[in-house]
Amino acid sequence: xxxxxxxxxxxxxxxxxxxxxxxxxxxxxxxxxxxxxxxxxxxxxxxxxxxxxxxxxxxxxxxxxxxxxxxxxxxxxxxxxxxxxxxxxxxxxxxxxxxxxxxxxxxxxxxxxxxxxxxxxxxxxxxxxxxxxxxxxxxxxxxxxxxxxxxxxxxxxxxxxxxxxxxxxxxxxxxxxxxxxxxxxxxxxxxxxxxxxxxxxxxxxxxxxxxxxxxxxxxxxxxxxxxxxxxxxxxxxxxxxxxxxxxxxxxxxxxxxxxxxxxxxxxxxxxxxxxxxxxxxxxx
Length: 284
Hints:
Residues 1-23 have low confidence and may be disordered. This protein starts with 30 loop residues before the first strand and ends with a strand. The protein has helices spanning 84-90, 106-109, 116-122, 131-140, 142-145, 209-215, 237-247; strands at 31-36, 66-70, 75-78, 98-100, 125-129, 157-161, 166-168, 171-180, 183-192, 195-201, 220-224, 251-255, 273-275, 281-283. The chain is α/β, with parallel strands linked by helices.
């Protein structure tokens, strides 16, 4: 689907931040892997014997929400949660050319130091985040940002504070500020060749009209849908469906699910709406 040209300023990306070996194995132009689709406590939840936590469907086992994107020019991860090492091993990730953060909550940043393997391979790790998120990263991971332990193999972040669209390779990435309870966090729109491919809104309690207009007609909407019951910091299933009706994507995927929403609930959703699961891949 062709959409209107996105004529935004972009941050300069040094050629050294790109890795020609990071292309998708399938030869696709844009490959997205769900590293995790769970909420902050994951599913199954510790100490819980509910039906979903005891489910025999492997898709009901959800690590913390994150995605991994591969293009012919480079590869990057969106968020490095508590489970990042496990996720990277499961998906046999060999290349990470950059990391993009939505926000600084524990379930989205605490795997940051596991980027050291990829940082060592390239000499540094470009980090893209809002000013507030970058401040938190610099505080929590002071040893890395201030090089308190400057030994070979340690993580060497290269911070890029973002508020406007920027590019990684030929992918234009547009920050989408959304409310997450009382906080404001970033979702992201990923576009290539003026085509809106994916809007990623993993953590939000509402989607402002301005953001809805920016992502209208996107091919894939990935959106927070914690459970059916309303929650103060996350969208419910019905709220997520309402956003999808406004945005009119070709396909909607729910993510950031808690242990109150099983994979089997997908059968009750509209035909163009699906529940994502860990390891699911989308390719263009």
